[in-house]
Design brief:
Helix 3 (55-65) runs antiparallel to helix 10. Strand 1 and strand 2 (29-32) form a beta hairpin. The longest helix is centred in the first third of the chain and has 20 residues, at 102-121. It contains 13 helices and 17 strands. The chain has helices at 2-10, 43-46, 55-65, 78-91, 102-121, 140-145, 170-176, 200-213, 235-238, 283-296, 301-317, 341-350, 372-387; strands spanning 22-26, 29-32, 37-40, 95-99, 127-131, 162-165, 181-186, 189-190, 196-197, 216-220, 244-247, 258-262, 322-328, 331-336, 353-354, 356-358, 361-364. It is globular, with a radius of gyration of 21 Å. The relative contact order is 0.16. By secondary structure, it is α/β, with parallel strands linked by helices. The protein has a seven-stranded mixed sheet with strand order 4-12-11-10-7-5-6, with helices on both faces. A four-stranded mixed sheet has the order 1-2-3-15. It has a four-stranded antiparallel sheet with strand order 13-14-17-16.
């Protein structure tokens, strides 16, 4: 309790925290101050994509720490150049802007979309359509973009220029995609909104309408990107490539990083002085990101992600308490018939398993390289709680 008391005395109480002090981690397990071990099915909300302290990742990060920890973006670094080249080649994008988080990546996307439209059409074409139940971040712009009323309080006035469309409602989209719109911003799977995948027909309609009207598509892949759904980008499941795609969370294996990827149409829209980030493209984060990309794009890696996802779903389908399972790959939402998701997460913690929640669902985001023995042990704990 000493650590928790010290923490609560000095750290702003802006999070609802579980009474767990994580002391160390290795592989897909972590230990607390009393050496109790936990299997991690949450990955730091999808951020520790290779688990805790992967050897190759840690070696690369430590080498970089002892070589160059930071350099102003007035200069060039080889590690950032290598990471940018690999990221663009693997995703098929033309250029990238590096930042430090998903919210920052989405801020960059918002600014780039508005500048693209301003450069081409002038003032008045700045509206960005986002979806009801979306989540894009907690800065003022990304909070304004988020399509959940529960977040629209306290911080008035919110930024203008955002319009919400009901997810999967093509008629609503057509009605609101008027001449003031410069972009549609979407999550292929609404993570914080309940792990809900968009309908293919709706995604097709978004791209068709945007193509007809020179409206940009922004894909928020902060949570879905870098292998989480069994594809490098979730847009691949839909056969789509957005004009702008945002990434963060698992991109650097646990070091703060965000990225905004730009296609041909917008590759040069941000010019010197129009955007920046002091820590964006930090050498340490890029060193970690290089290892993540190498592993995630290696032969068979994503096939294994999908096989592990099928194993989890097969276990859940046999559980009477499970109403339904949503999501793609190792991004899984579990709707329960009678039990409470938050209480389930607390019981799992007590039994040595870390899981997450998303609205009324239990949410699983295990490390992408978790092995089957760990999956089995974790699922044994979870199903015992659900069936108990």
């Amino acid at each position: 309790m000493e650590t928790i008391n010290k923490f609560d005395k000095h750290v702003m109480h802006s999070y609802g925290r579980y009474p767990l002090v994580i002391d160390a981690g290795s592989g897909r397990r972590c230990t607390d101050e009393n050496n109790k071990e936990y299997i991690d099915f949450g990955s730091g909300i999808g951020t520790n994509s290779l688990g805790y302290c992967d050897d190759e990742w840690a070696d690369a990060v430590c080498r970089q720490v002892r070589t160059l920890q930071h350099s102003s973006n007035y200069y060039y670094t080889a590690v950032q150049a290598e990471f940018a080249e690999t990221l663009c080649e693997q995703t098929g994008y033309e250029s990238v802007f590096f930042c430090n988080s998903g919210a920052e990546a989405n801020e960059c996307a918002i600014k780039a979309a508005r500048k693209y439209s301003f450069d081409k059409y002038g003032r008045g074409r700045h509206t960005i359509i986002t979806l009801v139940n979306s989540f894009h971040g907690r800065t003022m712009a990304t909070l304004s973009a988020t399509g959940q009323e529960v977040f629209h309080n306290y911080f008035f006035p919110f930024l203008e220029g955002f319009v919400n469309v009901a997810a999967n409602d093509i008629d609503d989209l057509k009605k609101k995609a008027d001449d003031t719109v410069c972009a549609v911003m979407l999550e292929y799977i609404q993570g914080e909104g309940g792990v809900n995948a968009l309908d293919r027909e709706f995604v097709d309609a978004v791209y068709d309408i945007c193509a007809e009207r020179d409206i940009l598509v922004i894909a928020d892949e902060v949570q879905t990107g870098i292998g989480r759904t069994g594809k490098l980008l979730a847009g691949e499941h839909y056969g789509k490539k957005a004009d702008i795609t945002t990434l963060a969370k698992g991109i650097a294996g646990g070091i703060p990083m965000g990225a905004c990827l730009f296609g041909e149409k917008v590759r040069d829209v941000l010019t010197p002085g129009t955007h920046g980030s002091t820590f964006g493209g930090n050498p340490i984060a890029c060193a970690g990101g290089n290892v993540v990309l190498k592993k995630v794009t290696s032969d068979g890696f994503l096939d294994e992600v999908n096989k592990k996802a099928e194993y989890i779903k097969s276990r859940l389908e046999k559980c009477d308490e499970v109403e339904s399972v949503s999501g793609l790959g190792l991004m899984i939402g579990i709707s329960l018939k009678t039990k409470n998701a938050a209480e389930t997460a607390k019981k799992a913690l007590e039994r040595g398993l870390l899981v997450l929640t998303a609205k009324t669902k239990v949410r699983l985001l295990p490390p992408l390289n978790i092995d089957y023995a760990e999956l089995e042990s974790g699922m044994d704990i979870l199903t015992a709680i659900l069936e108990g």
